[in-house]
Amino acid sequence: MPSPDRPDDGPTVADMELWKQGPPHARFHELRSKCPVHWSPGIAGMPDEPGFWSLTRAEELEKVSRDWKTFSSHLGGAVDITFGDLPPELQELGKLDMINLDPPKHDRLKALFLEGFTQTRIAAQEAWIREVVTTVLDRLDGRETCDLVADVSKPVVSRVIHGYLGIPEEDDAKWAEYMGRYIGRDDPDLNPGGLAQWADEFIPMLMEECMALIEPRRANPTDDLISILVHAEIDGERLTDDDIVMGILLLFAAGNDSTMATYVSAMKALMDHPDQRRQVLDDMTLVPSVVEEALRMFPAFSLMRRTATRDVELGGRLIKENDKVVLWYPAANRDETRYEHPDRFDVTRNPEHFAFGAGGRHFCLGNALARLELRLMVELTLERYPQMEIVGDAPFAEVFFINQLKALPVRLGPRAS
């Protein structure tokens, strides 16, 4: 039953049955046209969840993203609809993640992260990233088929972000598996032990693994991003161990999962639309536009959340203090008021989009690195395997927060000379 001071806007968006084949674009289209600020009465399978507001249109996403004083990331956390299924101590730990912070602490911490993501530093990595992609593709020689997730995307993106963090290559697979489980806690394939084991065993183990990265750098500083966090000060005080651990996990998770998801979605779209792929093969200068269109149509993260700090009107609806407000990026990225034929994959569109956020304090700091990786991955894969085709099922992760395929089996086709 809806609360007496809430409208009954119909069924929730947060029903995993709607997401089995990816984001529920038909439902989002209906909401944008009829009720773009929509009261969702709960989450399927969680009877104690009180409900939340769903934003499905670009205009409202931008307003909320750029007004941190009214729409807090810290009050209730920003990276999921609810933390209500987690123990209280993990809920509090999660609030230390930079994504879950408000200014001024957020801004000071982000400034530290930005030291590792300057345009100059990222541009200097292009030759190395190209070498990483080439090395991974070379491993496919002699094979007829592969899984683009496990065999290409995962090893490339893990090596790149782990190289930034000072992680040796022999640990890439371990940390990639950790991040799949960390961010995919509700998916039975990504986290086969279930939520209780995730909270009671996996997270404590992961914290210990992170501390094992911190202690050597505390004694012997290096020039990697982890060491920057270990020795950083904010207002004359060092970060706590929990602050550093959550910073490390943010970099690991964003660097592994987001770029991996977008590359796989981009390649699938090109195979699903051979006319578009042919257009790119005939003019490889379109690859950056392919990347932006894939980011628009298939954002790696489906949502962020805010909590209202006061009563406020949004899209003609009254949002009350402490209400949850969920920003649905797949919906805003197909807003008919912003994009012509928004459901059409168009490699010439080169769009603006919300895959990295909708502006404001929380715009993704790693966007330039992600774009560079994606450009090189798509370009080199197309050049080598221009006739690649899908040969099996491509299941989606069963997690509201992430919009990614767990596998994409392909036939490579003849290698181009």
Automatic annotation (TrEMBL):
Cross-referenced Gene3D superfamilies: Cytochrome P450
Keywords tagged on the record: Heme, Iron, Metal-binding, Monooxygenase, Oxidoreductase
GO molecular function: cholest-4-en-3-one 26-monooxygenase activity; heme binding; iron ion binding; steroid hydroxylase activity
Annotated InterPro entries: Cyt_P450, Cyt_P450_B, Cyt_P450_sf
Keyword presence, Isomerase: no
Keyword Metal-binding: yes
Biological-process GO terms, alphabetical: cholesterol catabolic process
Pfam families found in the cross-reference section: p450 (PF00067)
Family: Belongs to the cytochrome P450 family.
Protein name per the record: Cytochrome P450
Source organism of the structure: Streptomyces boluensis
